[in-house]
Specification:
With 1426 residues, the chain is mostly beta strands. The protein folds into twelve domains: 150 residues, no CATH class; 98 residues, Immunoglobulin-like, CATH 2.60.40; 96 residues, Immunoglobulins (Immunoglobulin-like, Sandwich), CATH 2.60.40.10; 99 residues, Immunoglobulin-like (Sandwich), CATH 2.60.40.10; 90 residues, Immunoglobulins (Immunoglobulin-like, Sandwich), CATH 2.60.40.10; 85 residues, Sandwich (Immunoglobulin-like), CATH 2.60.40; 98 residues, Immunoglobulins (Immunoglobulin-like), CATH 2.60.40; 92 residues, Sandwich (Immunoglobulin-like); and more. The chain is built from eleven helices and 106 strands. The strands form 26 sheets. Strands 48, 49, 50, 52, 53 and 54 form a six-stranded antiparallel sheet that branches. Strands 95, 97, 100, 101, 105 and 106 form a six-stranded mixed sheet that branches. Strands 96, 98, 99, 102, 103 and 104 form a six-stranded mixed sheet that branches. β57 and β58 form a beta hairpin. The longest helix is centred in the first third of the chain and has 28 residues. The chain is flat and about 165 Å long. The relative contact order is 0.03. The N terminus is likely disordered.
């Protein structure tokens, strides 16, 4: 019967047949009535069937099976059939399948029993059974009808969430169960952050259950399980989702009152892990061996059961030669062999079982060692990046210890062979990154780095991981092998004879002052076999491309260029090459300036130390601003007053760090610096001193009140704990519980994340329900115990017209006064608050004793209550007012006694530098105390106007006091018995400013700054002061500094103290404020003159006086200046006016008159003095004096100060040189150019790729106006681009020439000896000797033979011949003893000289004969004997 049930109904326990139509139900009824297994058959049918069983043989029964199958008919196990009659009488199954199964079993039982006992059953028994059967069918039908009414078919409507899942907050390692009830089919799916959860893929992590439309998800929580979970139900009628959040909190926040995490049950066993005998914070030195270990106790104990043991340091550690891990049955051990700074960090042991895991962590510090005292520590974290066929980039991190001297740079070593290290760079590099080139493809390399400073070299760093020099694509293919697909793809290879195309996407990936790194992509051709590259460079602004790697092309699409001129701009391009040739160049890069692109980071900001334990301090700081590629920070500590700094970490860390290993009770100060690849920043400001002492969690807050209440939320406020436990409070946690009929319920968390303010809105409350609240404070030491439960508050919508103020605080308690502070209401009320009233009464008095303090409402949130009785105890309250009237009063303050405690008041002070400050001293401060300054009782946050300095005592320093700084300044000291004071800064500010001025400007002034009119309409500003000759004067106009020049002439008479500034005339732009700022040592003063309004009258007077002076006497229209002609002549000239015959013009140089000669001239009102071929001796002060009976005028020009600019202008014309040319000389090649005029001050530089280093073979010089470069005996290596560079201070001029074919031609035409002479010739006396050499050269060389370095002349004994301009021979007709010696040949033409090898002739005695011994050289230069 079960085979007729559809598959989708088998999955539902509430299945019944009610979904069928009436027709279908009638058909099923007829089928059931015809079946012999139907439980509801009539007695007649049963009787007939019994008769048939008697008369005919029984049909074969199918073989029974005891296999259990799932919904897809897959065998999953065995079942044991049970036939008990009592089951039918005891009740009915809950599901349709169970009911049908029971009915079928009953029918089979009836048939079986009937067939065996037919003859023995009486009529009475048969009737009883028939009645029971009818009753049973009736009950089954009624049960089906009931289920039909109760359960609608799931497929006939969309899913619906009857109960949605709720969010939870749990501690780490606890289990949480999310529940929901969904009506509809099929079962919903569960997602974590929109990713479907697979329980089988995470065994032991998740557990999903679905029963009777109730679905649950059980999670064994870890930090990573903080997420949003979604339950989604979908069928053909629609889709519906519900959401719930799970927040997992840090286990360290759990206090002793919270339940411990509950383990998960797996396979019926709950494993409990306890880690004992734990490793602690450890310290080691480089080179030592350290072991960390813990004992793990696992209950229950199972034989041969081993948990999963994992060690972490930032990431999961794997066994290596540096990390050796061991598990001995109950103890896990990690051995660190040969400690290095890389081993420093937080180590975590994680013991994992099926039921959960347990961890333990502690920090390991590694002290750095230096090989030489004062030398730096070794670099760390050496890594290899961007490995290619012949190129690898090596990176590292700078050490924290520099030995007290700045690190000059780093050397990179590469291991070649076994334990054979080769230094990769000749000069130290400052950048913590270096490209290593020239590697052999396929070979594996390791690297190490050493640091160097002025005291010596560091130890080598730990070696890098081995890396192979190979193509990244080949490396990727080696890591992964593609599966066989059964296909063979044949591609057509590009012919090897094709010249490759252009490289693609060329770019500069890195640029420093030491090197530039290029990268590109190969061309897009199919075949890249044998592809290599040439790199070319070009100075920006030119089109002179030079090949960098001329000798060996590179194989990698990466290349590093060294030896570039720092500050210059270059462009680069790349060519591909293979066996077919060299391809076209790529597109050039943008101009790149050689220099460090990465700046050293800025110094970190304020450093804040916080107590942690008896031997550690938590240090936090402000991160460096705009730091790029930041690696981390190094921290240093020093005992207060010792000035001896020690590193706290040798591996860069983030912006918060726990410094361990400190001495208990000592006071330490800290400083921090940042590090990136460019280097170490400067140090941060030093922190305040902190005593090393254990911090404790804060005490509970108190005074919980409600500030606002709406239908579903309340705003709470509370007071700060009386003790913060030695560390600043980081936040608060609020809990709430519902109170029903006076019985409180369970506590629930209101906020998951700590709130920093002492007020919080609790949401999602139920209207008209009563609630209680508690608050816990947290600091670095942990979360404190909760406060006492608050009063019971009703959650209802407030209709208060005027809500009460809150957070009342009393400060500055004195014997006759107190200052009361409060905060305005959070709840707005009907209208805005416009004032407050303060009430006071004695603490013991009744409520009728309340009396008002102010008769008129104050709009401030503070009030000073006066006229109190000394020794009396008072309480206060505050009421707010708006247009509706005065509202209800606030909570009453704590009772405070009016007694003046031994507290000093704030004192105003003006120091010797004129700095105005407010100073407050407190003798009862504690380790946790802080000075808090306020203006008008609001904490000062803007430090641009008032800066707070605290060193023992505290002071508020004014930067630029002004009227906006007027107000009430107060300071209170936290964690004291109310130490506080205030100071009202009002009309006294004017007096303070005058005192400040007197302190800042102590230089006495005999007269203030004044202005007067001089002749020619000039204006003079002057004052007189008592200051030494070393005094300094700054001239300021409208807040901008002005200096000596054509417009302003300044003078300071040290004898009289008169300071003056003159102006030739006034223009409208000169209207404003003029200030003379005086400084003499530390003494300062200033005086100002405002020329506004009256300025126009002064300007008119100046113009009138100037015109009158010009009209009356000779004068200069244009003052003395200079110009340079193209012939490099310097002409001094000035333009004059109002001249007559009697007017004389006299020239002076350095006070001496220049005699009149041809160099002086006067034409068209212009006086000129010409200086030809100017030199340094012509510098000096030139002066022209115009003079006649009407008066005189003077103009000066100081060429000493302007001589450099003048010579640069002269050089700009000298730079108009002829193009650089090449000529041949007797000794080699000469490059030359002509300038119009040569001066010794002219800066000339010859270049060949870089500046040429001159030697005996390469020289430079000057002949007249010709500048030349001589290359003696040139070779092919001398070919290339030569340049001469003239520097005129602005950019200069550069002339270039390519030396290529000329060198080869000259080398070919110069005189040469094609072959050498034999080294030694031994010949018998009387024989004839002949020596012959091949000679080449154009023109034909001159040949000279030498004996013992002396020239030989041809005669009968010695015959010299030179035939056809090619063959030079030397013949001795009869050799005798006197002919012994050294012989050589010398050939010479206009292109060069060459000497043949020496020949040692040895003559031995013997019988003379007519034989002849001949030596000559063949065309290849080989010596031949015959």
């Amino acid at each position: 019967m079960s085979g007729s049930i559809p598959f989708y109904q088998k999955r539902h326990h509430h299945y019944d047949r009610g979904y069928r139509s009436s027709e279908l139900e009638s058909t099923m009824s007829r089928y059931q009535s015809s079946s012999r297994f139907t439980a509801g058959s009539s007695s007649s049918v049963l009787s007939s069937s019994r008769e048939e069983s008697r008369l005919s043989p029984l049909p074969k029964r199918p073989k029974s099976t005891y296999l259990a199958v799932d919904r897809d008919n897959h065998v999953i196990g065995y079942v044991v059939p049970i036939f008990r009659g009592g089951e039918f009488a005891s009740g009915f199954s809950d599901t349709e399948e169970a009911r049908e199964r029971d009915t079928a079993q009953m029918s089979r039982r009836e048939l079986f029993s009937t067939s065996l006992e037919t003859e023995q059953i009486s009529r009475k028994e048969a009737m009883r059974e028939t009645a029971n059967r009818i009753s049973l069918n009736k009950r089954i039908h009624e049960q089906g009808e009931h289920f039909k009414r109760m359960n609608e078919d799931s497929l006939m409507h969309s899913p619906e969430f009857v109960i949605k899942p709720r969010s939870h907050t749990v501690w780490e390692k606890q289990c949480v169960r999310l529940h929901c009830t969904v009506s509809g089919w099929p079962d919903p799916r569960v997602y974590k952050n929109n990713v479907a959860i697979d329980p089988l893929g995470n065994p032991g992590k998740y557990k999903l259950e679905s029963k009777y439309n109730v679905h649950s998800l059980e999670i064994n929580c870890d930090f990573d399980d903080t997420a949003q979970y979604r339950v989604s139900a979908m069928n053909s009628k629609g889709e519906l989702s519900a959401f719930a959040s799970v927040v997992v909190k840090f286990k360290g926040e759990v206090d002793e009152f919270l339940p411990a995490p509950r383990p998960v049950s797996e396979y019926g066993i709950n494993f409990q892990i306890h880690i004992v005998d734990k490793f602690v914070v450890s310290f080691g030195r480089e080179g030592e061996t350290m072991s960390l270990g813990c004992t793990a106790v696992i209950y229950p104990t199972l034989n041969r059961y081993q948990p999963e043991i994992q060690w972490y340091r930032d990431v999961l550690l794997s066994p290596s030669k540096w990390h050796q891990m061991q598990w001995s049955g109950d103890r896990a051990t990690l051995t660190l062999a040969h400690l290095n700074k890389e081993d420093e960090g937080l180590y975590t042991l994680r013991v994992t079982t099926k039921s959960g895991y347990e961890t333990h962590s502690a920090y390991v510090f590694v002290r750095a060692e230096a090989e030489v005292e004062g030398a730096p520590a070794a670099p760390l974290d050496v890594r290899c990046l961007d490995a290619n066929k012949d190129y690898i980039i090596v990176t590292w991190k700078q050490p924290a210890v520099d030995g007290g001297n700045s690190i000059l740079g780093y050397f990179v070593d590469c291991e070649v062979g076994t334990n054979h290290w080769v230094q990769c760079n000749d000069t130290p590099v400052k950048f913590a990154r270096f490209p290593v080139t020239g590697l052999v493809e396929g070979r594996s390399y390791v690297f190490r780095v050493r640091a160097v400073n002025s005291c010596g070299m560091s130890y080598p760093s730990r070696v890098s991981e081995p890396v192979a020099a190979m193509d990244p694509a080949d490396r990727a293919r080696m890591r992964t092998s593609a599966p066989w697909t059964g296909q063979i793809i044949v591609t057509e290879e590009e012919p090897a004879s094709v010249v490759p195309g252009r490289p693609r996407e060329l770019q500069v990936t890195e640029a420093t002052k030491n090197y530039v790194v290029l990268s590109w992509k190969p061309p897009g051709e199919k075949s890249l076999e044998g592809l290599m590259y040439y790199v070319e460079k070009c100075v920006s602004g030119t089109d002179n491309w030079q090949r960098v790697n001329t000798d060996i092309p590179v194989k990698s699409p990466r290349f590093a260029l060294f030896d570039l001129a720092e500050g210059k701009s270059y462009s680069f391009r790349v060519r591909c090459c293979n066996s077919a040739g060299v391809g076209e160049p790529s597109d050039p890069t943008e101009a790149t300036t050689v220099g460090d692109k990465l700046d050293i980071p800025a110094a970190p900001g304020k450093v804040v130390p916080t107590r942690n334990t008896d031997t550690s301090v938590v240090v936090s700081w402000e991160a460096s601003q705009n730091a790029k590629e930041l690696v981390g920070y190094y921290i240093e500590c020093s005992i207060e007053g010792s000035n001896v700094w020690e590193p706290c970490n040798n591996k860069p860390v983030n912006v918060t760090f726990i410094c361990h290993g400190l001495m208990t009770g000592e006071r330490y100060i800290f400083r921090v610096r940042a590090v990136n690849a460019a280097g170490l920043s400067s140090f941060s400001p030093e922190s305040e001193a902190v005593e090393v002492k254990a911090a404790i969690s804060p005490t509970p807050p108190y005074g919980i009140t409600v500030l606002e209440c709406v239908r579903d939320s309340m705003v709470l406020a509370w007071k700060q704990p009386k003790s913060i436990g030695g560390a600043d409070i980081t936040g608060y946690f609020v809990d709430y519980r519902e109170v029903i009929d006076g019985v409180p319920g369970q506590w629930h968390e209101a906020n998951i994340k700590a709130v920093s303010e002492r007020a919080y809105r609790v949401s999602d409350l139920l209207e008209n329900r009563k609630y209680q609240f508690q608050v816990r404070a947290a600091n670095m030491a942990g979360v404190g115990i909760p406060s006492l439960p608050s009063d019971t508050f009703l959650c209802e919508e407030w209709t208060i017209a005027v809500p009460p103020p809150h957070d009342l605080e009393i400060r500055e308690v004195r014997s006759d006064s107190m200052v009361l502070l409060w905060k305005p209401p959070v709840y707005q009320g009907r209208d805005p608050i416009n004032g407050f009233y303060i009430d006071v009464k004695e603490a013991e008095a009744s409520d009728e004793a309340w009396r008002g303090v102010n008769t008129k409402a104050t709009d401030k949130t503070f009030y000073k209550v006066k006229n109190l009785s000394e020794g009396q105890t008072y309480v206060f309250r505050v009421r707010a007012q708006n247009q509706a009237g005065v509202g209800k009063s606030s909570e009453v303050t704590e009772a405070v006694e009016a007694v003046t405690k031994p507290t000093k008041e704030i004192v105003v002070d003006v120091d010797d530098d004129g700095i105005i400050s407010l100073n407050f001293e407190c003798g009862e401060i504690t380790q946790d105390s802080k000075f808090v300054w306020s203006k008008n009782y609001e904490e000062i946050s803007d430090s641009t106007r008032v800066a707070v300095e605290t060193k023992g005592n505290s002071k508020a320093v004014f930067s630029s006091p002004a009227e906006e700084d007027i107000g009430i300044y107060s300071c209170h000291v936290t964690h004291t018995d109310g130490a506080s004071s205030s100071y009202t800064l009002s009309a006294e500010l004017k007096r303070l400013l005058q005192i400040s001025h007197d302190h800042k400007f102590p230089i006495p002034l005999k007269s203030e700054l004044a202005v007067e009119m001089l002749e020619k309409g000039r204006v003079r500003f002057w004052l007189q002061a008592e200051m030494s000759g070393n005094g300094k004067i700054d001239y300021v106009f409208n807040d901008n500094g002005i200096s000596q020049g054509e417009k302003y002439k300044m003078n300071f008479d040290k004898n009289t103290g008169v300071i003056e500034m003159t102006m030739e005339s006034l223009t409208p732009a000169d209207e404003g404020t003029y200030t003379f700022q005086l400084q003499d040592g530390k003494a300062k003063n200033q005086s100002s003159l405002v020329l506004i309004g009256d300025f126009k009258e002064l300007q008119k007077e100046s113009e009138f006086q100037r015109k009158e002076w010009f009209r009356k006497q000779p004068h200069f229209i244009e003052y003395l200046g200079y110009e340079v002609t193209p012939e490099c002549c310097v002409i001094l000239k000035c333009k004059v006016g109002n001249m007559k015959k009697e007017t004389t013009a006299i020239w002076y140089k350095d006070g001496k008159e220049i005699k009149s000669d041809n160099n002086l001239g006067f034409t068209e009102g212009v006086l000129k003095l010409e200086i030809a071929q100017i030199s340094k001796k012509d510098s000096g002060v030139y002066e022209v004096v115009l003079k006649d009976d009407r008066g005189k005028d003077t103009s000066k020009l100081n060429l000493t100060e302007q001589f450099k600019d003048l010579m640069n202008e002269v050089f700009s014309f000298i730079n108009s040189s002829t193009p650089l040319k090449i000529t041949s000389t007797e000794n080699g090649i000469r490059l030359y150019t002509f300038v119009s005029y040569y001066n010794d001050l002219l800066q000339v530089t010859w270049h060949y790729d870089s500046a040429i280093a001159f030697s005996d073979r390469i020289k430079s010089g000057v002949v007249g106006e010709q500048l030349w470069l001589q290359i003696t005996e040139p070779t092919e290596k001398d070919m290339g681009t030569y340049a001469i560079e003239f520097n005129d201070g602005k950019g200069g001029l550069r002339r270039t020439v390519e030396l290529s074919g000329q060198a080869a031609a000259i080398a070919e035409r110069r005189a040469r000896v094609a072959g050498g002479l034999p080294d030694v010739v031994t010949i018998q006396e009387g024989k004839a000797l002949n020596l012959t050499c091949n000679i080449s050269g154009d023109p034909v060389p001159v040949v000279t033979w030498l004996k013992n370095d002396k020239e030989i002349t041809s005669d009968e004994h010695c015959i010299l011949k030179f035939a056809s301009g090619k063959f030079a021979s030397f013949t001795i007709t009869g050799v005798n003893i006197s002919d012994s010696g050294k012989y050589s040949i010398l050939v010479k033409n206009k292109y060069g000289t060459e000497s043949g090898d020496f020949t040692q002739l040895e003559v031995v005695e013997g019988t003379p004969d007519l034989g002849i011994t001949s030596y000559w050289t063949d065309p290849d230069g080989n010596v031949v004997f015959g």
